[in-house]
Amino acid sequence: MVAALRTPFTYLVGLLATGIAATAVIITSLLKPESALIDGIVRSWARVVLWGGGVRLNVIGHENVDPSTSYVVASNHQSTFDIMAHFLALPVPIRFLAKKELFGVPLLGWALRRLHMVPVDRSAGRTVYEEIETNATATIAQGKSIIVYPEGTRTTTGGLLPFKKGGFFIAVHTGLPILPTTIAGSYEAWLPRAKIIRGGTITVAIGAPILTRDLTVDDASGLRDETRSAIESKLIELRANPTG
Fold first, then answer.
1. CA atoms of 12 and 20, how far apart (whole Å)
2. 120: pLDDT confidence band, cut at 50, 70 and 90?
3. Cβ 166 vs Cβ 148: under 8 Å
4. Checking CA distances to 159, which of 35, 80, 205, 208 falls within 20 to 30 Å?
């Protein structure tokens, strides 16, 4: 019964929070584009949405992050809640790859542009990778970190899917370290395509950075495999001990 009531409540809270946050981001970024308040607004939005969904956030591994450094964050992908959890868990300003269609949504699309999120046109075929890398590099140049979900989609089983190499090419070309990040509990909190939001505890475990300086595109496959192995081993550990 609680879960059934939580679902419409989460959607209502999410809709209102998104509208208010998007408006605040647009206005603030127009008045002062480099204001730290912009990321504060985004984190507040994430906190409100997780609260509405009955989610408690547990973060481990903060010591692995240097707030003055930019990263290519790589994480497994379990549910929509992952986005909010990462905004709150990571002590660096992060930007996502977002479906190009979202940039056409009134208010939301304007806010995504002002935040310098990276548009992804899935209909562009192989040329999409070049466009993503160009846009991601421009965002990184502004001192932001990029987060990628190398699986390319949310898991439907809770397990880890094969990793694609796109995000690792970005890391190699920019020389930024990979920050392997493992999320657990969001699959159970909001099952993909499920109509019921259950809530619960989501744990984000931040791993030790993997350096990419002096690597070449020929190293992307090995970098991908090393990152996946780190995330997979931590996911197994978190399932045995959810609080880390």
1. 12
2. confident
3. yes
4. 208
- Answer whether CATH 3.40.50.300 is correct for domain 54-240: no
- Domain positions in the chain are 54-240
Smallest Cα–Cα separation from 149: which of 135, 131, 168, 130?
168
- For the four alpha carbons of 84, 90, 94 and 100, in that order, the dihedral sign comes to negative
Q: What is the pTM of this model?
A: 0.92
- Contact (Cβ atoms closer than 8 angstroms) between residue 110 and residue 26: yes
pLDDT exceeding 70 applies to what percent of the chain?
95
pLDDT digits (tens, 9 = 90+) for 6-22: 899 999 999 999 999 99
Which of 78, 81, 94 is CA-nearest to residue 55?
Answer: 81
Sign of CA pseudo-dihedral 49, 53, 54, 57: negative
